[in-house]
Design goal:
globular; 5 helices; 5 strands; single chain; alpha+beta
Length: 122
C-alpha cells in the first residue's frame, strides 16, 4: 500500500472561501498539492506522521503546502500526476476508505486516454 502526492499547482484565490486556507495559501503564494493513499487508515497514519491535524482531512485527501509535499516525498510518498491522484482519491471515497488494489487502479488508468498536460515534473 502507498501514499501519493500530485504536483504543486497554483490555486485561484477567488475559489478559496475558507479563511484559514486563504491565510495559509497567502504564505505559499497560493500553491498547493494533494495527498491521498490506498486506504483511509494509511492516509490518516501518514498525515499524523507528517504533522497534519485530523480536522484538515477532506475525507479522501489532504491539501499540502509545497513544504509539506516535499517532506511527504522524503518520507516515502509516491509522486503521481494530478489525474492519477484524483482517480485514487475517488476510489478511496467510493469504497468508504477501504480502497482498491493497485491492480484495479492501474486498469482504470490504463483505460483512459493520455493527458499530456498532466505529466509529473522531473
Amino acid at each position: 500500500m502507498s501514499v501519493y502526492v500530485d504536483p504543486v499547482f497554483q490555486w485561484c484565490l477567488e475559489a478559496t472561501k475558507d479563511g484559514q486556507a486563504r491565510r495559509v495559501g497567502a504564505r505559499n503564494r497560493h500553491r498547493w498539492s494533494h495527498m491521498t493513499a490506498d486506504t483511509s487508515m494509511e492516509l490518516e497514519s501518514f498525515a499524523r506522521r507528517l504533522g497534519l491535524r485530523p480536522e484538515w482531512s477532506q475525507l479522501n485527501h489532504y491539501d499540502l503546502t509545497p513544504g509539506k509535499r516535499d517532506l511527504a516525498v522524503r518520507m516515502g510518498a509516491v509522486e503521481v500526476t494530478a489525474r492519477e491522484l484524483a482517480i485514487r482519491a475517488q476510489v478511496l471515497r467510493r469504497t468508504r476508505g477501504i480502497g482498491a488494489t493497485p491492480e484495479s487502479v492501474r486498469v482504470v488508468l490504463d483505460s483512459l486516454p493520455p493527458d499530456p498536460i498532466d505529466e509529473v515534473e522531473p
